[in-house]
Specification:
Blueprint lengths: L6 E8 L15 E8 L6 H24 L11 H19 L9 H15 L7 H40 L3 H6 L8 H13 L2 H13 L6
Antiparallel strand pairs: 1-2
Helix pairs in contact: 1-4, 1-6, 2-6, 2-7, 3-4, 4-6
Length: 219
């Protein structure tokens, strides 16, 4: 169910054993909190914001196409060149947005988690049950904030890439199908390209490897 996840806080002991399985004196143990938080789904507000950013990019792409100021279509020579161009495109968008990531949601929640864990670990007698409960609560909040940041960052990257695709003339479906293909409107192809670019470089890198290596052979 959305927003529900369990969080476990454990006491981790670091032992300096001289042999595997040997008993360790208590004086050689250093206790600290280990936070294990299940991933959570983004909240409705973040989802709306993410798709709203994509919609804004789509409107801008349509306006560029409608006004006729978009560049001529880029047509790479083969499929490998198409996906390499897409990979470079995605990397460029990531680098452009990286300086602005500090303003995305979730940073305050992560800082609060780090501060709560540090305060609990600083106690001379070790973390108390109240400390563990506090860390668990803050950890769940941080996990939700991270999920919110991920979906907003995806929407922002996709919206920006959609506008860049329409303005620059690189459309993934037309690039793959050929310059004479007109199966979908240019501005719709810009949205498809933007969403693919907004997903990041790793999925694209995996896709390129699959295209180059072909389907896995049956055992």
């Amino acid at each position: 169910m959305q927003g529900q996840a369990s969080t476990t806080v454990e006491v981790e002991s670091a032992r300096n054993s001289t042999a595997a399985g040997a008993a360790t004196p208590r004086a050689d143990q250093e206790s600290g909190l280990t936070v294990v938080a299940a991933s959570q789904q983004a909240g409705p507000g973040a989802v709306v914001a993410g798709f709203g950013l994509i919609a804004a990019g789509a409107v801008a792409a349509w306006a560029i196409w409608r006004s006729g100021i978009s560049a001529a279509k880029i047509q790479p020579e083969d499929s490998t060149a198409v996906f390499l161009t897409l990979l470079v495109f995605a990397a460029a968008v990531e680098r452009i947005l990286e300086p602005f990531s500090r303003w995305l949601p979730g940073r305050k929640a992560e800082a609060a988690l780090a501060r709560t864990v540090a305060e609990a670990d600083a106690r001379p007698d070790g973390p108390t049950d109240a400390d563990r409960e506090a860390v668990a609560a803050v950890s769940a909040t941080a996990a939700r904030a991270k999920a919110n940041r991920t979906i907003v960052a995806w929407g922002l990257a996709s919206g920006l890439a959609t506008v860049a695709s329409s303005a620059g003339g690189f459309y993934i479906l037309h690039a793959v199908a050929g310059g004479d293909w007109n199966g979908v409107a240019i501005w719709i192809d810009a949205i498809v390209t933007g969403v693919m670019v907004g997903s990041g470089t790793k999925p694209l890198h995996d896709l390129i490897n699959r295209v180059q290596n072909g389907p896995p052979s049956a055992a």
